[in-house]
Every structure is written in structure tokens, then in C-alpha cells.
Amino acid sequence: MDIGRALTFAFQDSQWIKKVAIGGLLLLIPIVGLLIVTGYWLRLIRQVVENDDVPLPEWNDFGGDLVRGLKLIVVTFVWSIPAAILSLITTFSGSGDDFSSTSLGLQCLGTIVSLGVAFIQPLFATRLALTEDIGAGLQFSAVFNEIRPVTTPLLIVLLMSIVTALLAAVGVILCIIGVVFTAFFAYVVNAHLYGQVRRQLQGDPTAALRPLV
């Protein structure tokens, strides 16, 4: 995994400030803005997988990005159903003084399942990014079979996603600067890392990516 490249490749685009600012501003728009950014994020993942990470994609397909974002929401929702069920069971199994060791156990299990979904998200998200087919992201057996060859990269991506989330949180504290830059920048970094995971599965993790200057 080339973490350094994931952190720096965006700056090789001469229009990176404009593109990052647009992404950050879209994140200020409830629901629709997030969906559009998610669709753009999928386009960026596909670009990385296809060996062409620079420049960043243009903001020229808002409608298509919206649809792509909706598709990822559907796929992620399906993968998250077990965790959601465990959360509901925990909620109704008791609260306050009635909160039992069983409820605590279910809560811990739900957290583990949620982390598991986050762990394998690069697999089903990149499948969707490359095909734009919801079914490709829900090929459970195929996704599980892909885990073993890239277990370490997946763990690195999970840890980096936590780091970038903390970075985004720092940006939010900085108000406008954070919203416009750090939150969307976290998307950009994670997109590159996701793309690198898929490239490793394809057996060609570094070839054909243009050198950064």
C-alpha cells in the first residue's frame, strides 16, 4: 500500500483547490450533496483502479454521481443489515437498570459486525465502482473469497479511514476550512486506498500509474 501517494496525489491536479472546494461545499447540502460526493468518490476509485489517478475527475456528472451514490447506499445497507438487527435487539432487550450482560454482549457483537463491514467495504465498493451494478457489490461469496489475499491492505485501509475521519473532525472544529477541505480530502485519500486494494487483487498494484512530479 502506497499511503504517501494516497495522501499527495490530489495535489498533482492543477485544479485541485477548485475540485476539493466543490466537494466540500456539496457536503454542506443534506442528503443530496452527500450522495453526489459518494458517486464522485466511486468515479475516483474507478480511475485509480484503471491506473490513472491524476487528475481528479471533473465535476461534470452530478446526475450520474447521484445515482451512483444511491447505489452504494443500497449495497452498504444490505451489508449492514446484520449489525442493524443486532442493534435493534439490543435496544429492545433492556435499558437502564434492565440493561443485562446479554444486552452488553449483543452490543459488542454489533460493534464487531459493523467493524467487519467497514473492513470489507473496499471490496464491495470497488466492485460497484467498476461495474456500476448493485448486484456486483452484493456477490457475497465472491467478496468473502477476496478477503484473504488482501487482509493486510484491508486492515491498513481500515486504520487509515479512522485517521482520516479524525482529520475531518479536526477540520470541522476549524469550521469553514474544515468543511471545505478536510472532510472531502478524507474521501479523496480513502478512494485512492480503496483503488489500491482492488489493484492488488488484480495482481498489478503499481504498474502504469503515472509518476508524481
Question: What is the strand and helix layout of this fold?
Answer:
Layout: H1 3-8, H2 16-26, H3 32-49, H4 62-92, H5 101-131, H6 134-137, H7 140-147, H8 151-173, H9 176-201
Helix pairs in contact: 2-9, 3-4, 3-5, 3-9, 4-5, 5-8, 5-9, 8-9
* Percent of residues in β-strands: under 5%
- Which bin fits the share of residues in helices? over 70%
**Helical segment count:** 9
Strand segment tally: 0
Radius of gyration, in Å, reads: 18 Å
Taking pLDDT < 50 over at least 5 consecutive residues as the criterion, the unreliable ranges are 207-213
Give the end-to-end Cα distance, rounded to a whole number of Å. Answer: 19 Å
**Main beta sheet strand tally, sense and closure:** none
User: pLDDT average, as an integer?
Assistant: 86
| Alpha-beta content class | mainly alpha
- How many distinct domains? 1
SSE ordering? HHHHHHHHH
Gross morphology is globular
What does this structure look like?
The chain is mainly alpha-helical and 213 residues long. The protein has one domain. Helix content is 74%, strand content 0%. The chain has helices at 3-8, 16-26, 32-49, 62-92, 101-131, 134-137, 140-147, 151-173, 176-201. Helix 4 (62-92) packs antiparallel against helix 5 (101-131) and helix 5 packs across helix 8.
